[in-house]
Amino acid sequence: MSREVQFEIPVAMMVEKAVQPSVEKERSVVKAVRLEMHYRMGRVTVPALRGVDLEVLEGEFLSITGSSGSGKSTLLHIIGGLLSPTGGKIFVRGEEMTSLSDSRKTQLRRREIGFVFQRFNLFPTLSVEENLKLAERIHSGGSPRHAGNGALRKELLGLLGLDGKSGRRPRELSGGEQQRVALARAVMNRPAILLADEPTGNLDSSNSELVLRMLQKLNRELGQTVVMITHDADAAAYSTRMVHMKDGRIENDTALDR
Amino acid sequence: MAIGIVLIVVTSGLARGMLGSTAERESAVGAELLFQPPGSFGAGATTTPLSLPVAYAEALAKLDGVRATTPVGRYVRSGAGGLGFELVEGIEFEPTAGHESYSAITGMRVVEGRVPKGDREIVIDRQRAADGGTNVGSTIELFGRDFTVVGIFELEIGARMKLPLASLQELLGTEGKCSSVLIKTSSPDVQEAVAARVEESFPGNQIIFTRDIPSFIAKGIPSLTVFLDIVMGLATAISGLVVFLTMYTAVSARTREIGILKSLGASRRFIVTIIEKEALAISALGIAAGLLLSLAVGALISHWTPLIVELDPIAAIKAGLVVLLGGALGALYPSLQAAKQDAVEALSHE
Predict the structure, then answer these.
(1) Which residues of chain A are within 8 Å of residue B350 when distances are taken between CB atoms?
(2) Of B51, B182, B311, B315, whose CB has the highest number of CB atoms within 10 Å?
(3) Which tens digit of pLDDT belongs to each residue from A22-42?
(4) Is the pTM of this model over 0.90?
């Protein structure tokens, strides 16, 4: 994969962000208060989170590190509204998630959250463009008549170095290209927070660097808030703040000098 | 699903074709009235031994307004190759004291060969000859005995195989009996008056106007309607089950994709709608394949057997709607289950 790809933020996204007042820069996007999560496995209860307090501010690029079983994936899924905690509270853009109905939680996820997964999770039977269109349809409430933003799609694909590949199926793309499509899909609705679950876990080092630089660019130039889970200290180094978890607790919370 | 369509369309096509053809032949007998004993099924086709004394033909012929009568014996046997059924008629080839010959009333005539003279001789119409690949000189097995085809008759009326009434009576052990009597009136205008007279003279018997036979058959025999309803119900159940299993398997195989949809913020309604649309698309393909298959099966049956298949557009539309409904209902449970799936579990599904 070429390292020469230049990332230019799409004009449509720049305009969107440019009108936001700078005073909101420090606004809290995610706030976890005494978050608890226990999994029941037969008669045994396994604690995954033990009273986690965490606040993510708008414009932060937070990486969460920790070994397997430290609770970082559980925390990410709770922030994304895919899991409900067994204790504590979680606020996303000021809305307390645990008190929301399933339907309201789905709406919040659709509006405020973008996901990127380790395994890309593209629809294998759809082309790159169709994958993006499907996400647009979901974001627009499911209307098939929703034409979507063709210009933004094109600009995003250009930004990601995927020019000329909009008609390709995922299996016709490399792992790095698939992850970039997944990233485009995640930021299309300009979410308040982008959650990345080991986004470089299935990529070689050059593709990993491309994806990390892209996340960094989105964060720096668009002010996109990013929460990324990673095992890799090099990957975490791209973030502005690093939280290390161990045994369901936050062990370290460090601002990185960037 | 396609099989469900074939089941409905071909079965109703067979019923329609066979009944239509029967109605046409029964109503073209040249007589205005059909007289038969009480409890006879339809227009006289029966698998029970002949029960009406032939003497009725002579008695009926004496009524005012009756020009001529002829007795007819009818027997239903399994169709050629074991498919469907086949009607055999015993008729009078020559006039006898008191009644006319069948030919004199109906206009039937033997155009190849001759009329039967011996006990084991039979005549058939051209369609029967073509269907069975038989001709003058061939033999046909009836009642466990070989009958020689001695002639081909024209005018497709009544049964496609006819033998002397005396032969049929002997084979069934019902000497002096017949199934019905054809009554030709002196004029079609007097048929109602003659029917009233027959009713008055021989109460308790059935008198059928031959002009009413097509509508009589078209209205359907109650048991046949029930049979078709059962076939329709079975086809619906089969279609629903097939779609249900297809969608259940599809949903299970695509658990991960449903997890992705959820992570993108897809609502339950969106997921149910997507799966339902897919089920309807599968059903539509099944309907198209089923209709094409029905055309092919109908053509093959008509070509290779004596059965007649007349495909009915209304039955095809009904079958299509039944399958669409079955598809939509069959996919509903899997789609609701899919929409309820836990997103994290779905995403970790291999």
Answers:
(1) none
(2) B182
(3) 434 468 999 999 999 999 888
(4) no
